[in-house]
Every structure is written in structure tokens, then in C-alpha cells.
Amino acid sequence: MRKNRINITVVLLALAIISLFLIQGYQTSQIYDRNYTQFKLNRSSSLERIAIRHEKTEDIRKYMNLMKNDFREEYKKTLKSEFKSLIKSNEISLKDTSIFISKNKETTHFILEGITKDSLENDLKIKLIIPEITKVQQLFKKNENKELSPDSLTIENKLDQLILQKLFTKAKFVNDAMYRAFNQSKALEYEKRINLLFIDSLIKSEISNDNLPKKYQFMIVNEKGKPIKFKNQAKNYNSKLLKADCGKTLLFPNNLLDEKLYLYLSFPNENLFVFEGMKTSLYITFLLVILVGIALFSMYKTILLQRNFSELRNDFISNMTHEFKTPISTIKLACEALSDDDVVEKKDKETLAPYLNMIHLENKRLSTLVDSILKSAVMLKGEVKYENQEVCMNELVEEISEKFEFRIKSLNGKLKVNITDTPVYSICDKLHISNAISNLIDNAIKYSADNIEIEISLFHIKKQAILAITDKGIGIKEEYLTKIFDNLFRVPTGNVHNVKGFGLGLNYAKGVFDYYGWKISVNSTFQKGTSFRILIKNKNDDELRN
């Protein structure tokens, strides 16, 4: 029985370790899935920004070319008109001039002249020299999202801002420019339409701002799903990428006229990158698994050591008790020989009689103790042999009660026996059941102090057979009730040692009852008494229920 419990415990420990690994593996998988999902979201976000920035930059490049060629006359007319309204003058002149910045470099400027009135109604001549469409060009330069300079309130800056607004609100002019731009890019080859080096630098710039790996590869695929091969390829361009491993975005999302091109972005070490983000969590999980594994393994080793120790202890007890049997038998034979008239003369026999009687009683008590220890050792090893038969519990309880009645009366005690008239039959080993019940009654006698009052009852409650043994002895404190059936446990009595025993009787009794599936329970009140109840497996239970 004990060996089976140890095996079950070992199996449970193994299952606990396996379950721990499975749970930690599942949690790690969940964390990885969450991190990988976030990684894909970051990749998609970067791709969208790359596509938008790329398209805007390409539009700026196209419109800058148009502006250099087509906006000059429109710019001059708008410049003159806005200068006239700004200084409120009807007399405006505009001339071209060239200014040499250095020996070999000159720039084209406009000279604007106009006459207006000051606060005293005097004529005031205003003259401006401004570069040709410089501010318009700067509008399309990269990262031109800066605040106005401190001198932005000057006439020149005000004029420049008004001209820009005026130019880009002329719908017909802008539409014509856009039409020419689309016609120019309609049939462009991939090499002319796409600048791989620029896209490469744009990807590098964008992913540096996100939580993404630094190593990457990309490819561009046409609307038929075929990767495009370029003569002049960028360092990170790879036309053989697996589409399933890449993030994807439309390269020109707002261009409805040209062929659709798709940008695919891949990170070769994306799994390693995701795991890197889980590094702290993985270390903690791994450490916890190791610690729990070590703890469970140590527990397993301790259980094995305890089992080996228990087996050694039981073997020692068995060997010791068997060794005691020989001197006990020898002492018994010696006492019987000394009691024989042929061995000891009559006059010497009377002298030796008290001593022989004392030796005989102590030898008998020693034999009983050795038998109890041997039974306990056999019980712990699970080697008890039971010879089952049909036993009438009514008759067995009555026989046991009669055996103890003489002993209780000799101690000036009272024994009350109540046995039901309804027969109670059980399949069990009569000898072991008798010994177990006798141990309970013997304990009731030993722990009843001076006034022994014991009641033995066999009755039915809700058609279940119950054997109760109740005393009015010293009782058991509540903190010891769960331990009284442990092997070799005895309730502490301080410095008082008037009750003899080894703490084996109750453990033996519970072992026998557990073997047959009988339930034993105890209720006790300190200094008032104790009651043991045994729920018996009655052979006639089914008949009683019917």
C-alpha cells in the first residue's frame, strides 16, 4: 500500500513537471504570437509611410521640372498683380536683371517698382529686387516644413506667400500641368520610373524609427505578380524573395493611371528579432522552470530516500522482533521448567513462585509488544495476509466485549454493550478485525484514568451499520486528532508516563479498516472523553435499502 502511494506520488511529480513545461511552452507561444503580430503591424505601418513618402517625392520631382519650364510667365504676371495690391498702387513696373554672385555664376532676379502714399499723403517710391521663383522651388524641397523666419513680415516675404497661394489656386493652370505630367510618366520604363537607391535609403530611414530589424531586403513586383529585375540594383534589392515571408504595400497608392507596382519588404532574421524582444521574459520563464524542476527533482529524491529508509526501518524491526522471539520463548520454557515439581523441590518452589510469576507476566507482556511491532512492520510493508470469510459482526462484537468485561470490572470500571438485533454480516478477516477493535477498546481503557466508563454499540443509522466505542476518559486535544492514526505517534502527556505503548495500535487498526474500505472517524473533547466510529461495509446493505 505504502509502495503504491510512493509510486503514485512519483507519477504525479512527473506529470507536474510535464504540465509545467507544457504551460510555460504555451505561454511562451502566446507571447511570441503577440510580439510577432506587433512586429507585422510595425512593418505594415513602415511600408505605408515609405509608399506615401516615395510617391510624394516623385510627384515633387515631376512638378519641379514642369515649374522650371512653364511657370515663369505665370509667376511674373502673378508677382506684378500681387505687388500692386499689396502696396496699393496703380503704377507698377517689372524688369528682369542678372546679378553676378561670383566670376562664373549669375542669377536671374526681378526688379519691382511702384509708387504709393505714406501716412502724410506724400508719394513714396518702393523698389524690390527678388530672385526668380526661388521660394517656389524651395517649397518642393525635402523637409521644407519649417516655421517662417523672423523677417517673414517684410513686404518681400508677404509678397512671396501671396504669390504661392495665388499660383496654386489657379485650377486650370494646375490641371494643365498635371495632364502634361501624367502624359510624361504614362509609358515610362521601370528604370526611369523607379529609383532603387532612393527607395533603399527611404526604407532604411523609416525602419530606423520603428522597432524593426536593421537588416532587410526588398523587391518590387508588377501588377501581374512578377518580380521586376533592374540593371542597376541596390544593395538590399532581391528579386527572389518569397512573397509569403514579406510585408506588402502599393508603391504608388494614389496613382490611378499607371501600372500598379508593389513593394515587398522582408527581414531575414525576423524570428530571431521577435525572440530578442522576448529575451527577458524567456530568461525569467527558463529560470522558473529550472528552479521548479530542481525542487520537484529534490522532492523526488527525498521521497526515494524516505522510502529506502522506511524499508530499512521495517526490515530492521522485522529482524529485531524475530530475534526477540527466541529469548522470549527460552524464558517461557525456563519459567515452565521451574514450575515443574520434578525440577524444583516443593519448598524451593514456594520461594520462587512470586518471581516466576513476575517473569512470566513480563515475558508475556514483552511477547505482546513484539507481536504488535511485528504486525505494524508487516502492515507498513503491505505484506499482511488476509483470510476473508463471512463474519457476523453482532457475534464478534459480543465475543470481544465479553473478553474485556472481566478486565474492566477488575479495574472497578463499567462496560455497557448495545448490539442491534438486525444481523450485520461483512466479508473480512476475523482475526485482524478482532485485533483492530480490541486495540480501540484497549486504548479506551488505558486513557480512562481512574473512572472507567466504556460503551460499545453496534447499530444502524440511515440503514448503515456503525460500530461505536465511547469512553469518558481524558480525551484528546483538537490539534492531535489528525495525527493519532500515524505510525508511532502518541499524544504528548508531558512528564507523566503512566500509559504504556508504542503508538502502534491505532495505526494498525486504521490500516485494517482501510483495507476493507471501512471508514473510521474520531470525536473527542479534552478531559471529557473520546468516541470512535467505524462505518462497516455490511454485506446486507443492499437488502436493508430495499
Question: Can you tell me about this structure?
Answer:
The structure is a single chain. This protein is an alpha+beta fold and 546 residues long. It is built from 14 helices and 13 strands. The strands form 4 sheets. The protein has a 5-stranded mixed sheet. Strands 1-2-3 form a 3-stranded antiparallel sheet, with helices on one face. Helix 1 (2-70) packs across helix 5, helix 1 (2-70) packs across helix 8 and helix 1 (2-70) packs antiparallel against helix 9. The longest helix has 69 residues, at 2-70. The model is unreliable at 134-153 and 542-546 (pLDDT under 50).
Structural class: alpha+beta
* Backbone shape: rod-shaped
Q: Report on the biggest sheet.
A: 5 strands, mixed
Q: Biggest sheet, strands in spatial order?
A: 8-10-11-13-12
Radius of gyration: 53 Å
The helix content, as a percent range, equals 40-55%
Query: N-to-C terminal Cα separation, in Å?
Result: 35 Å
- Number of helical regions: 14
Overall residue-averaged pLDDT value: 76
How many individual β-strands?
A: 13
Strand content: 15-25%
Secondary-structure element order, N to C = HHEEEHHHHHEEEHHHEHEEHEEHEEH
Low-confidence stretches: 134-153, 542-546
